[in-house]
Each structure stands twice: as structure tokens, then as C-alpha cells.
Amino acid sequence: MPRAATTTDIFNAIAESQRRDILVYLAPRERAVGEIVERMSLGQPSVSKHLKVLRDVGLVHTRREGKQVFYRTNFEAIRPLFEFTGMFERFWRNQLTRVKARAEGKS
Question: What does pLDDT average to over the chain?
């Protein structure tokens, strides 16, 4: 079965670590493209490509002010990621409990 296109599936879109880094950087507040370029230490064309993918899947919102475009994380669109990973929380919690028990010699 073929994979979903990066531009239509949020899981594929965030598979790229630089896109995750951009989302994290945008989380506290919106930023202009120039700020993102500077922070990511990537060329402007690369940042623009990543932002386009994130925008196409709805993970970022844009706002235009004159010639500048500002981006911000769309937290509502991240909800499916949160819900998916949340399904595994009980396994993580269980693993931590087992590690603690072993460390305390209770296993």
C-alpha cells in the first residue's frame, strides 16, 4: 500500500525532523519567515518548502502583514498526533514502573 503524500498526512509531514523543529519554534508565538530561517540555520528556499508542507497539512497558520508572512503553530491540527501518542501512555507508564521496581530490587 503506498504511503500518503507528505502534503496530505500530518504524520508524514512531521516525519522530517526540521519540520518538527519549526513547529516547536513557532509554538510560543508567531514568527516571520526571516526569523525562522535565521533560527533553523537553513536556506530560505528550504525553510519555505518545509513551511509549505506544514501549511498544506494545516499544522501552521499564516498571517500576511505587508510583504511579510508570519507563521504560527495550529495547535488544533496537532490534536490527532496527541491523541495517537496518548494511546501509548499507559505502556510508557507501565515501563517506568517496571524500571523503578527493578532499580529498587523489587522485580
Answer: 88
Query: Using one digit for the tens of pLDDT, what is the confidence trace for 53-95?
Result: 999 999 999 999 999 999 999 999 999 998 888 888 877 777 7
- 51 close to 36: Cβ distance less than 8 angstroms: yes
Domains of the chain: 10-103 (1.10.10.10)
pLDDT of residue 68: 93
User: What is the pTM (predicted TM-score) of this model?
Assistant: 0.77
Rounded to the nearest 10 degrees, how much is the dihedral formed by the CA atoms of 35, 36, 39, 42?
A: -120
- Sequence letter at residue 70: F
How distant, in Å, are the alpha carbons of 64, 87, 95 from that of 73?
15, 23, 31
